[in-house]
Amino acid sequence: MRTVIVVASLAALLAACGDNAASPTEPPASAPAVDPAPAGEPAEAPATPSTPTAGEQGGGSDWRQIVSTADAANLGRLDQAWRLARAEAEDRGFASQVEALGPLVDPNAGLAGRLQPAPGTYRCRTIKLGSKGEGGLAYLAYPYFACTVELTPGGDLILTKTTGSQRTRGLLYPDTDNRLVFVGAQAWGMDETGFPTYGQQPERDQVGVFERIGPERWRLVVPWPRVESKLEILELVR
After folding, report:
1. pTM exceeds cut of 0.85
2. Pick the residue with more confidence: 191 or 37?
3. What totals of helices (H) and strands (E) does the chain contain, helices first?
4. Which of the pair, 135 or 146, is modelled with greater confidence?
């Protein structure tokens, strides 16, 4: 997708950043949360990202031309996902845990400018708020795993969660002054060493907003994800 982010302008922005399935098994509420693996799989399942190619998401620079109508509608209901997911987690006994996360769970924490993280390796962890169905856990916080950010020769900016049993890979599209839009898909379990592309397996698709919430801190927020929760947050830090 050579026109997603013009290389010259993005290089300038990156330089400014220097200051920085069926549903996976859920752990019991009393146990420390670990990144859940599909039935019987260990939690640590490193993936080797496939070599990105220019235009790997179809060559369009507008995420609206890529995502399904349903995913665009889910993104349009982001405020509702925030409200319901936080309320459910707090009402079911996790108010102190949610409060302790600070700006990570503040819907209005996104900052303008320097939205693109510099290419390289990052630590990342997942927080899930609200339950997708009856009986599910309303709050899950996982330990840190590994993520990468790549800038391809074609100008695509790609975010990948490379370890854990639920990994994700996708492109970051320009959107507004204080957010990008992520369009990607998940890999599950140890047996998968690559990633589906968006649309190949709709149950794996992920669409969310990517925001900077600190000097060297970002978050990917996925409203109404396919499994487990009402809202999924991936925190990205150096």
Report:
1. no
2. 191
3. 4, 9
4. 146
